[in-house]
Amino acid sequence: MKARASRTLHASWMVAAALAGCFVFACSTSDTDGSSPTSSDAAVDSAVPDAASPDDADAAPDARGPFDAEAPPVTCSVTPCITKIVAGPNHYCAVSSEGVVWCWGDPNALGNFAPKTSPAADRGAKPVLLAGVADVVDLGATLTHTCVLHSDGGVDCFGRGSAALSRVARVAGAKRLAVGDSRSCVVDGNDQLTCWGDSFALGNGQTTMDAGGEKAASVAMSDYAAFVVGMSGSVYSWGFEKQMLGRTTSLGIDWTPDRVEVLPATLQLAASTKHVCAITIDGRLFCWGHGDQGALGVGNFQDMPLPTEVGIPGPAFPAQIAVSGGHSCARTTNGRLYCWSRANTYGELGYEDVAGVFVPALVSSMENVVSVATGTGSTCALSTSGVVQCWGDNSKGQLGIGQHDSQRHPTPTAVAFP
After folding, report:
1. C-alpha closest to that of 388 among 63, 101, 139, 67
2. Domains and CATH numbers, the chain
3. I need a surface site. Which of 16, 99, 139, 347 has the fewest CB within 10 A?
4. Where is the signal peptide (predicted)?
């Protein structure tokens, strides 16, 4: 069944239909690498393209027709043909149509898969095939490591601290994976949320987390806050970071999932170490958390402790969201891409000017986008042809072009797969 929704459909039916028809829930990434780019306070000017007004999406929302979040199919006109991408702060991984995994970027996050034959200065700058990694159901990445969920429920990880591929958990029937630096979770075959690892902010040991008494649809993790989307579309949060929980709590560390306030039934959610964004079942975008990087998309850099609606210009709806600590990007239902941040220091927003935009701005060079992933100062997008293009910071080889450099890369460039 296709993931199709309208404002007149019941929330629980819609989320179940979306889950049956497509896989659109995003796992979060950790963004604390200690190298925050210099922010720019420059306002949007004539050199910054297509900045959207928060009012644009409300001009005639019903004229946009019904909301369909399903991504367009990948037609595979290249080899390897990529069908899924995920991001850590300084590296990316991709699954091909053959079911194999490629990764590139920070060699510390690639573990033993980082090629030893490359010049030390350029290790990880070209995609490397993860030999022996197959039968992939889902991927997750953080600053320090990458994890793979297999169809047998096994979760294998590699990277800093565990360079070799190693089994860290096995949960029968697991089908969704969210990875944090200290704690990770899966949605299992019974639609229950199982988590493991030790984190002062998110809990300790292997436990089953309660999602308000309902079954879990997806999960997202950051270093200090975690989120589970229930089958009804309700979102529940727990953790240490009050600005990101999206609800009021009297506890300094709240380990009990409780419902995010004022957020309509949700289809997809992504979390960084700074903020959270969600797409609702009727095609609206909401963000909350720390606004100092301008990544909330609400027109300023104020903190928003509760979900606040973000305008995306019509006629398309936001359909997939990706967030890093410094910027956010959304794919729309017409295959276009919008990004926003306080600064465009490395070109991560996809245009030349270093000034940022505090509301979604069109990446004019990108069309036919299937999905987007965001790292710290960099962005990668997958198109319907199976090509991955990246732009922004390349200091650790995040762009996959075969070398590291300190230049700005505002123009999307195809990843150079061997």
Report:
1. 101
2. 4-28+41-414 (2.130.10.30)
3. 99
4. 1-26
